[in-house]
Amino acid sequence: MINSSSSKQVGQDQQATSEPRSPRPKIKMVKSEESDKRILNKKLKDVEISIPIVYGNVSFWLGKKASEYQSHKWTVYVRGATNEDIGVVIKRVVFQLHSSFKNPTRVVESPPFELSEAGWGEFEIAITLYFHIDLCDKPLTLYHHLKLYPEDESGPMSSKKPVVAECFDEIAFPEPSEGFLVRVQNHPAVNVPRLPTGFTLPPPVPFEDANRKKRGDTKDHPLSQWFMNFSEADELLQLAAARQQVQAYLAKLRRQISMIDGQHQQLKTISDS
């Protein structure tokens, strides 16, 4: 399995608007709905949210069914780091395949953001993420090298155990809008920081029905058993296990040093006598 990690920051351009001058001042009455909209579009200074994602591929060798040009079936995807529904942040994903594929530009409009194909060669896939307009109007392009063959090419290939290549990434959005935070403040796919002192958000917007939300996550995905675990809890468990191994090794070294010291003391006593 292959994994890597990095982080990216996405901003949003601000456009200034102006109105033509009026010969005399006028009092403009603002409707309550328009006022609420302006409040929700307000940018939050010194606040940054992040969305941890994983992108990569799972590929299976076709075994006896493999042919010269169809040796593997594979799925490339973008998912939440803990398999949560990232459709709350990402509106659509465009996968740019090799030009040899029919219709190489594939657009996925809803989660799960994935596509499956078959082929024989490895190549780079451009994955462009488009976000919901209340978060960011700039797309973000990631690049993933489709992996079909195991690292140990001399070993036998298996049609049951796939090759998995995944990358962890954390996308940061500085100064999000208040409306976006209201919409996702309790969503598990979004890391919302502690807000500035004295700042409170309006009540959260209710999420869509559970059945629709469940279709967007990848917890029960057919390939989920092969997904790599990038959760903080898993990392803490691994660190704890490594610490126990180090402590056990140090205890073993202390026992060996104590035995050597004891033998040295015995030899010194004998020589003195």
UniProtKB/TrEMBL annotation:
Task: Alphabetically list the UniProt keywords.
Answer: Nucleus
InterPro entries the UniProt entry points to: YEATS, YEATS_dom
Q: Which GO terms describe its cellular component?
A: nucleus
Ranges for region Disordered: 1-34
> What are the GO BP annotations of this UniProt entry?
regulation of DNA-templated transcription
| Residue ranges occupied by any YEATS domain in the UniProt entry | 43-187
Does this UniProt record's set of keywords contain Isomerase? no
- Read off the CDD domains from this record: YEATS_TFIID14_like
Pfam families tied to this protein: YEATS
Please indicate if the UniProt record lists Protein biosynthesis as a keyword: no
List each coiled-coil range. Answer: none
**Comp. bias regions, Polar residues:** 1-20
Protein name, please? YEATS domain-containing protein
Q: Which organism is it from?
A: Carya illinoinensis (Pecan)
